[in-house]
User: Which sequence fits this backbone?
């Protein structure tokens, strides 16, 4: 395998790896041939020497799959500016980081060989393969946790009943304090999923017209989740798994991969980072080219690190995926990758009405879904002050755009130019959240 | 909004609104549907899922008109990636002038100019970032909007934050000058900025037509508007503008009068220029007997005006001097500055500007007289007088008659660069910034040599490089990228000179590294735009 066929990333994809704005900037400045020597690419890896202020240049290696980084600089940032600079340079300029004509130098080759020998493949989304632990102790721990969550859910039910006894009319004056306290108790009860729902719920009172109805909806769905968890034994297996995952109980990715993976050419539909407390969460949506299945990969970065997994949006990855158990499987973990990503085409997509129907069907399996990954075809964004829509090319069917980042909206409008486009995003009860648009056959992240 | 399907009935006799009302009121006050808070939540959960699962599309609002087609060719892929990087650098702000890596925000103007020169179309995805850049940096506006093209204007019509783009003269074509009705309508009803843009655009294509438009409404314009409109006449100023300007000399507004007088004095054939010439020549005369010591020969004798009469004031002479300046010298300066330079040769025995400037001046009037001539040379774009007045680049700046940076702008590019190179060789870089700013890009070979030598001398003197950051910044933008190889040796760590500032050598190496890196990046940028990247 050579560098041929490997998709060069866009600058934006590289910059998405940066742990912070300062690193993005520093990396951008190093994306010039000046400080680099012996930079080359081969076999899905890049390496180069970067002249710093000292006499000895830094040795930088990047494994594009993963990706993984190694640099001799003292920076604690990860990836460091040198790795970012090298990736940017590679993304921008075939001349400077061309296909290697020789074997990688020893310092790069050793690290790459070691990394690949350890196996970069299973649990590629950052999940570590756990050592086999004492199964009896593990079961006891799991039982203790289940009891704590059940106690938490019972207490939360009480709290919701109290709220409805007193009436939600005064909820906007009550302040966040009691909800914050409740969320903290759910964290103690090891039910982070419940804690997150409480925090979202606490933000509703007093926000715009119709907030009491929205608050009631969210309280009711939280109640439904509590009841689901408290009656877990009586639920069918897949629905029980869905409830467990919403409460915050995760399945070890490594055990999933021990089972059968689904191999397909996975088109990378979109990638989105969100900042959730001290955790950076990256979502990557995939669409199987042969079987048409959707998948969601999650990757986390803690303490100032960007999530490690990144896949070029618009490319196709021949790989195996294992789904987490659920009534409507979506979240998956990446197994073996058979080839590096290659450029993909434009996905087929559906019309607005079909998108809402698909979301409705998904809700039948998982009533707590806020949105469902959707490719819309032939839709036109309609900017209208605060309230944007995305509408079918013909007929009068439209979805409201969920208010979001100003840049993505306007970028979407600019690419559409008032004409129909193919857009990937999430379709949900609040409307559509766009993530990727195809422009002249190329995927543009929004 | 997305609509719920199937009405709002939750169960027989209970609607969603009933549930919300019950929730608002609270079970303590009234028994809720279902009989308990838990039952109410059960009902609400069913209703919520049912509503969400049964959502129907909203009715589409009016779709925007499609954007006009941009037929220019798309950027080469490498150039498009570079643009994305440059715009990212912009969004994250300038990082000051430290470190060894290039400042991306400073490279954006060059990149835009080069892309426009090649006639590329902007990538649609970058239009919002380009419009934001043009919004925050007015110096970038013209190039950015030209590059962003018609689709950016289409976009700007949808977003009030980008309204500026619709008013800018560069991107917005406005009505065709032939379309007299449309021009007239915009001129009569347009916003001020639109009217200025219209006037400027028409002035560029047809000066007389612009003048006609302006004189039609002149008397009804507000004073500050009159001033701006008058300013638009600077471009393509000609004898035809004289009647309008003469009329403006009697304007109610002092600043309008002053501007009209200034414009008229830049027209050497104007009546005002002739009147000023008479006044000026009455003040300056040749004394053939000359001083007997120390230099025998003819000298200039100056008799400054004794009063600033109404005629002078009408011609734009400001009677009240700034504090610390004598009245008579103030009046003399203004009169000489506004008088046509060409008349002096006739007045002073057919001498050339160089010979006139060389004449001794009696009674300490030389500084005033030469400074006034220097301003006249700039105003009348007279290269011969400018060359005579700017003097030798070797003399210290303070002794020259006028502002050399302004006088240089009148000289031909080659002469400018040669003068600047000599100036830097003689004085170093501490006062070179404005001088360099007037020189054509890329810098000529002698100028490059002078600047690099001066930087090397400054480094060897052991001071920190920060005092020269302005010049370094100019060098990054103005040096020919082909010079990078030649500068590379300077980017190594020099020996610490005796008595130098501690660590200065390292900072200098860093500054030169940055210069070299920037030049290489500029070379790469141009290469990418040529399709070679």
Assistant:
């Amino acid at each position: 395998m050579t560098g041929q066929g490997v998709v060069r990333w866009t600058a934006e994809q590289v910059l998405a790896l940066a742990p912070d704005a300062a690193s993005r900037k520093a990396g951008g400045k190093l994306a010039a041939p000046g400080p680099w020597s012996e930079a080359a690419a081969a076999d899905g890896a890049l390496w180069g020497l970067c002249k710093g202020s000292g006499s000895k240049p830094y040795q930088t290696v990047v494994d594009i799959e993963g990706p993984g980084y190694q640099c001799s600089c003292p920076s604690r940032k990860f990836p460091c500016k040198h790795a970012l600079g090298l990736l940017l340079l590679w993304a921008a300029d075939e001349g400077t980081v061309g296909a290697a004509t020789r074997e990688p130098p020893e310092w790069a080759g050793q690290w790459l060989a070691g990394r690949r020998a350890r196996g970069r493949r299973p649990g590629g989304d950052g999940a570590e393969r756990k050592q086999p632990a004492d199964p009896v102790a593990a079961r006891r721990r799991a039982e203790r946790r289940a009891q704590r969550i059940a106690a938490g859910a019972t207490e939360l039910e009480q709290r919701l009943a109290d709220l409805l006894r007193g009436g939600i009319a005064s909820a906007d004056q009550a302040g966040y304090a009691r909800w914050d306290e409740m969320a903290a108790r759910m964290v103690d009860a090891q039910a982070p999923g419940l804690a997150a729902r409480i925090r979202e719920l606490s933000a509703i009172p007093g926000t715009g017209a119709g907030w009491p109805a929205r608050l009631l909806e969210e309280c009711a769905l939280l109640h439904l989740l509590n009841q689901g968890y408290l009656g877990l034994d009586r639920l069918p297996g897949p629905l029980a798994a869905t409830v467990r995952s919403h409460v915050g109980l995760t399945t070890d990715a490594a055990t999933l991969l021990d089972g059968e993976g689904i191999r397909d050419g996975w088109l990378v539909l979109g990638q989105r980072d969100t900042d959730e407390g001290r955790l950076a969460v990256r979502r990557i949506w995939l669409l199987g080219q042969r079987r048409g299945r959707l998948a969601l990969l999650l990757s986390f970065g803690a303490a100032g690190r960007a999530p490690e997994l990144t896949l070029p949006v618009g490319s196709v990855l021949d790989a195996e995926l294992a789904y987490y158990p659920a009534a409507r499987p979506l979240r998956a973990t990446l197994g073996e990758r058979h080839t590096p990503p290659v450029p993909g085409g434009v996905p087929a997509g559906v019309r607005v009405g079909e998108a809402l129907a698909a979301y409705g069907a998904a809700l039948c399996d998982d009533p707590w879904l806020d949105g469902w990954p959707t490719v819309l075809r032939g839709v036109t964004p309609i900017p209208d002050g605060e309230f944007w829509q995305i509408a079918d090319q013909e007929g009068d069917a439209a979805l409201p755009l969920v208010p979001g980042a100003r840049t993505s909206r306007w970028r979407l409008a600019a690419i559409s130019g008032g004409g129909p486009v193919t857009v990937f995003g999430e379709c949900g009860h609040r409307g559509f959240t766009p993530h990727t648009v195809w422009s002249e056959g190329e995927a543009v992240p929004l | 909004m997305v609509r719920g399907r199937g009405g709002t009935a939750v169960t027989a006799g209970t609607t969603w609104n009933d549930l919300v009302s019950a929730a608002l009121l609270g079970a303590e006050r009234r028994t809720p549907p279902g009989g308990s808070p838990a039952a109410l939540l059960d009902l609400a959960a069913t209703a919520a899922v049912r509503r969400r699962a049964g959502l129907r599309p909203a009715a589409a609002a009016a779709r925007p008109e499609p954007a006009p087609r941009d037929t220019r060719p798309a950027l080469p892929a490498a150039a498009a990636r570079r643009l994305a990087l440059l715009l990212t650098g912009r969004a994250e702000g300038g990082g000051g002038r430290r470190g060894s890596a290039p400042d991306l925000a400073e490279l954006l103007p060059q990149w835009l100019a080069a892309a426009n020169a090649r006639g590329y179309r902007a990538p649609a995805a970058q239009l919002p970032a380009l419009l934001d850049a043009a919004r925050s940096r007015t110096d970038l506006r013209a190039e950015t909007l030209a590059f962003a093209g018609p689709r950016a204007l289409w976009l700007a019509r949808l977003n009030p934050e980008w309204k500026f783009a619709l008013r800018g003269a560069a991107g917005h074509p406005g009505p065709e000058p032939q379309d007299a009705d449309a021009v007239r309508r915009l001129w009569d009803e347009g916003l001020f900025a639109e009217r200025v843009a219209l006037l400027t655009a028409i002035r560029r294509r047809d000066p007389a037509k612009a003048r006609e438009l302006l004189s039609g409404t002149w008397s009804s314009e507000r004073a500050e508007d009159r001033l701006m409109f008058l300013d638009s006449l600077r471009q393509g100023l000609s004898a035809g503008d004289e009647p309008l300007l003469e009329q403006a000399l009697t304007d109610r507004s002092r600043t309008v009068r002053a501007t009209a007088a200034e414009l008229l004095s830049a027209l050497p054939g104007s009546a005002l220029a002739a009147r000023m010439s008479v006044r000026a020549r009455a003040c300056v005369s040749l004394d053939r007997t000359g001083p007997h010591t120390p230099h025998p020969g003819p000298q200039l004798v100056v008799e400054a005006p004794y009063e600033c009469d109404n005629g002078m004031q009408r011609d734009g002479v400001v009677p009240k001097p700034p504090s610390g300046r004598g009245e008579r010298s103030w009046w003399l300066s203004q009169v000489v500055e506004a008088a046509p330079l060409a008349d002096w040769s006739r007045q002073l025995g057919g001498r050339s500007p160089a010979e006139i400037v060389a004449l001794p001046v009696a009674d300490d009037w030389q500084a005033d007289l030469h400074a006034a001539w220097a301003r006249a040379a700039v105003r009348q774009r007279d290269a011969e007088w400018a060359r005579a007045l700017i003097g030798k680049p070797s003399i210290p700046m303070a002794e020259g008659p006028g502002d050399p940076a302004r006088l240089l702008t009148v000289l031909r590019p080659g002469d400018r660069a040669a003068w600047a190179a000599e100036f830097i060789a003689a004085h170093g870089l501490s006062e070179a910034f404005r001088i360099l700013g007037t020189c054509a890009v890329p810098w000529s070979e002698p100028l490059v040599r002078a600047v690099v030598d001066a930087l090397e001398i400054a480094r060897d003197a052991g001071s920190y490089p920060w005092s020269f950051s302005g010049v370094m910044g100019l060098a990054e933008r103005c040096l020919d990228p082909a010079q990078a190889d030649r500068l590379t040796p300077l980017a190594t760590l020099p020996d610490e000179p005796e008595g130098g500032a501690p660590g200065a050598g390292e900072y200098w190496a860093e500054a030169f590294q940055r210069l070299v890196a920037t030049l290489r990046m500029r070379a790469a940028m141009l290469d990418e735009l040529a399709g070679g990247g």
Summary: The first strand of chain A starts at residue 36 and ends at 42. Chain A touches chain B through 81 residues (CB under 8 Å). The first helix of chain A runs from residue 11 to 15. Chain A has 13 helices and 16 strands.
